[in-house]
Specification:
Shape of chain A: elongated
Oligomer: heterodimer
Distance between the termini of chain B: 28 Å
Structural class of chain B: alpha+beta
Strand order of the largest sheet of chain B: 2-1-3
Distance between the termini of chain A: 47 Å
Largest interface: A-B, 21 and 10 residues
Helix content of chain A: 25-40%
Strand content of chain B: 15-25%
Helix content of chain B: 10-25%
Shape of chain B: globular
Radius of gyration of chain A: 15 Å
Order of helices and strands of chain B: HHEEE
Largest sheet of chain B: 3 strands, antiparallel
């Protein structure tokens, strides 16, 4: 069972790997894409700030907790730091599990807890 | 940010000391937590001189 969590500078590159999925019957991927509108105004990009190494360690711990709690075969997490332009991917979670139910539950719980606890902040870079 | 607390002050006491020293931040502090050495800890945890503290506000990752 594999856990992989990393924070990368800038937009995330195309997905280059899946978590260990031997025995998996379900593979789920979520990608967070930078929208063109924030609070009703057009933006050029989001700028992500992270408090490291705490942010990376929390992502890793949270991913490991989801693996154990939901019986996953693997979980892979990537999050951006710095400037990410509109349309680019800034956040990706890939989960492999024996069945779809636990995969869906783990995905929802992981994202909810990341958004509540992990020290990462985004600031819009406004257009015009 | 500098606040003075007693030796062996807890996370809770430090949080309260920050609120007293910076009353203009009181509303924001309600949503803040202190991390000690890169991790959230129980508020009754005593802090030492060698600990690194970080005041973490509302986050917006993901």
């Amino acid at each position: 069972m594999s856990v992989h969590a990393v924070i990368l500078d800038g937009p995330l590159p195309p997905d280059d790997g899946s978590p260990e999925d031997a025995g998996a019957g379900a593979r789920l991927r979520f990608e967070g894409i930078v929208r063109p509108i924030e609070d009703g105004r057009e933006i050029l990009a989001l700028n992500y700030q992270t408090y490291d190494p705490m942010a990376t360690e929390m992502l890793r711990q949270l991913a490991g907790e989801m693996l154990q709690l939901h019986g996953l075969t693997g979980i892979r997490v990537e999050h951006s730091r710095g400037r990410v332009p509109v349309g680019a991917c800034s956040f990706r979670v890939t989960i492999a599990a024996p069945h779809r139910g636990p995969a869906l539950e783990a995905m929802a719980e992981f994202i909810d807890r990341l958004k509540r606890d992990v020290p990462i902040w985004k600031r819009p870079i406004w257009a015009g | 940010m500098v606040v003075r607390v007693r030796d062996g002050a807890t996370v809770q006491e430090i949080h309260e000391a920050i609120a007293r020293a910076h009353p203009g931040l009181a509303v924001l502090l309600i949503a803040c937590r202190l991390a000690v050495n890169g991790a959230f800890v129980p508020t009754d945890r005593a802090v030492t001189r060698d600990d690194e503290l970080a005041l973490i506000g509302l986050v917006s990752g993901g």
